[in-house]
Amino acid sequence: MFKKEDIYKYLYFDVETAALYKDLETLHDANPRLWQLWKKREAYYLGAYPSLSSEDPETIYKQKAGLEPEFSRVVCVSFGSFTDTGEVRFASFYGDDEHDILTKTAKVLNNAASKNWKLCGHNIKGFDVPCLGKRMIYNEINPPANIRIWDKKPWEIPYVDTSDVFAFGSWTHQKYLSLDLLSCSLGIESPKGIMDGSKVNDSFWIDKDYENIKTYCELDVSTVMEVMLKVCFPS
Questions:
Q1: CA of residue 84 relative to chain centroid, distance
Q2: What is the pLDDT of residues 78-113, one digit of tens each?
Q3: Residues 92, 218: Cα–Cα separation, whole Å
Q4: What confidence tens digit (pLDDT) does each residue in 54-66 have?
Q5: What's the gap between Cα 163 and its chain centre?
Q6: Residue 38 forms beta bridges with which residues?
Q7: Which DSSP string corresponds to 189-226?
Q8: In Å, what is the CA distance from 33 to each residue of 36, 39, 131?
Q9: Long-range contacts of 209-212 (CB under 8 A, 24+ apart)
């Protein structure tokens, strides 16, 4: 499926997000129009997920806003790559300055494109790539060419999504394969040991534990790298 020399020239990455504002009151005060649009999304979530009917609006906002670029902010982007000797190195941009995080991220992505390196991650087609592209535009940053794929043919897309790889062509299977489930199935240690995605919002807004978010994000990247090694050497 993949050659070892190929995956050594991939740039692996993961994105962590939190709600754009700390709470609904802050959102309303800062941007009443966006607050009204969020209330429409809240109604959608209540209809689509009956389990949320027992939750208050604040909880729904904190749980779901980070999943949508229009209502979220990027709080960490972690990159991983293999050295020529097979060692792993990481670079992470994180904290409360989204514009700075995205500016540095764009620089790394542009550098990868100049080297003809492919990007790689889990469910990056469904979340990470569109999230970065949209948040860059909203922050008046030009998205790098390797995440602007709207005019690309499938074989021209410069990234590998492990959820696609393990879907083996099935759209429904791809939708439900989490990185935690994939790593478990492959015998790889879970990246969710210190937290999971649902905890990032409180870690950012309440605890301000940016270091822990960074560690969690790098663990996700490391797990994807291990997954790709398993793809190359399944036995």
A1: 26
A2: 999 998 888 899 999 999 999 999 999 999 999 999
A3: 8
A4: 999 999 999 999 9
A5: 13
A6: none
A7: PPTTSS--GGGHHHHHHTS--HHHHHHHHHHHHHHHHH
A8: 5, 10, 21
A9: 210/75, 210/76, 210/94, 210/95, 210/96
